[in-house]
Amino acid sequence: MGDDADPADLDRLEALDDAALARLAYGRAETPESRMLAQRAARILASRRPAPPPVAAPTALGAPPVALPRAAGPEVGDAATPEITPGAEEVPVGRDRAPGWMLAVAAIAVVALGIGAAVASLPAEPAAFAIFADEADPEPLATEAVYADRLATAGERLLSPARVIASTDLVDGGTIDMVAYRTGRPGAPADARQVCVALFGTLGTPAASPRRWERTCLPEPEFLADGLDGVLALTGARVEYRWPVASDPRRADEVEPASVSFRATGPRTVTGVYALDSTALILLPESDRAPSPLVASITSAAHPPGMPPIVLGPVELARVDDEAILIGFVAEGAIPGSELVVCAVAAQLGVARGTIENRCIPVTQFVAGGVGSEASPNAGVGTFSFRWESNNAASLTILRPSD
User: Fold this and answer.
1) Among the three residues 88, 105, 121, which one is the final residue of a domain in this structure?
2) CA–CA separation, 310 vs 333, rounded Å?
3) Are residues 278 and 368 in the same domain?
4) Residue 15: domain span
């Protein structure tokens, strides 16, 4: 039953269902006629089967497609007609489809590879915490060990090294270091751990001992969401500090670095003082005009040479007979680079070791409200009550008689 087969026979074969055709195609064929009939049934059966779609590996996790193994079977010479093996008892597996168990194993392997690649790409720590890794700074600053010791001594439970992430210089050669660290118990949940920054100020020479000025902490989730920032108010100055983080870890390289800045809150020069609306400060003589011996002596006791230098004054503001005197002057701030300060000094006279009371405030505060003691004639405490106003009005009252 070759190409010259009876059309009626072909019609009868075409009318058979797939199961009947399979029995003819793969059943026992003992005669030439039965073998030809089997070949024709196999061709009809093959023409009815659509080509199976290629098996694609999952791509959601970014894994490449994996080629599935080809099922073992007889070599096929014709793409449309499988070779018929006489005497075959079972229907063989199709050439373009792997057995079900092989497909399942391959799919599981692809998914496992994709998940493994995704997990491997996740950072062990958030990008903001990379600064705490040992390899982040192969030569850590010597001061970082000092800062870590200071923090531990103060009761901090450090989960990381202390790292200087920003610094700013002061006018006298000192510095302000912004030190970052993590605190909490190992293994505690993220919201029970904290991210902290401490500001350490070193005044004068680099050999001076640093002092902690500020400490700010946030729970780790809050820090990773918004970063950390703050303002430290000092006498005559303010320190602003920021440690920003990326809300999107993929854009961590675009985040601005941590920063700390120091600025004066008012004038730092005599010219700046004269520009303020204050009669009292305008009337103060320059420091090159020598004060009286009495004023110079009391000023030296209240403001010794080791303190920041005086830039205006001193001058006598008020006196109570020969019992007390009030002196005023303008000096540099205690922190290098800060706003100038206005000082009022009340002192007893005629007593070998008389009482001296000293009040100093930033220039801008003096212009706004004057300077003086908190005591009053009715308080019954202290030795003096004194005031020096921006319009140059001055008052001095003795609260307790001299011994």
Assistant:
1) 121
2) 10
3) yes
4) 7-121
Tokens 């303020």: give the residue.
276
Buried b (16+ CB within 10 A) or exposed e, 68-83: beeeeeeeeeeeeebe
Statement to judge: residues 188 and 138 lie in one domain? yes
Residue 181 within any structural domain of the chain: yes
Q: 305 and 253, same structural domain? A: no
**Is 115 within a domain?**
yes
- Beta-carbon count within 10 A of 54 CB: 9
Last residue of a domain, one of 234, 264, 294: 264
Spatial separation of the C-alpha atoms in residues 97 and 26, rounded to whole Å: 18
What is this structure's pTM?
0.62
Q: Are residues 210 and 283 in the same domain?
A: no
pLDDT tens sequence across 185-242: 988 998 899 999 999 999 877 678 889 999 999 999 999 999 999 999 999 999 999 9
Number of domains in the chain: 3
Same-domain status, 257 and 282 = no
Q: DSSP letter string over 134-202?
A: GGG-SS--HHHHHHHHHHHHTT--BSS--EEEEEEE-TTS-EEEEEEEEES-TT--GGGSEEEEEEEEE
Q: Is residue 308 within 8 Å of residue 379, measured between CB atoms?
A: no
Run of H or E residues at 365: helix 363-369
- Residue 76: the pLDDT is 40
Q: Which residues contact 292 (CB under 8 A, 6 or more apart)?
A: 316
Residue entry with tokens 């439970």: 157
Which residues of 190-322 form beta strands (DSSP E)? Answer: 194-202, 211-219, 228-234, 237-243, 259-264, 310-320
171/71 same-domain check: no
**Length of the chain as a residue count:** 403
Distances (CA, A) of 222 to 63, 99, 256: 34, 53, 18
Residues 329 and 381 in one domain: yes
Alpha-carbon distance of 291 to 315, in angstroms, equals 7
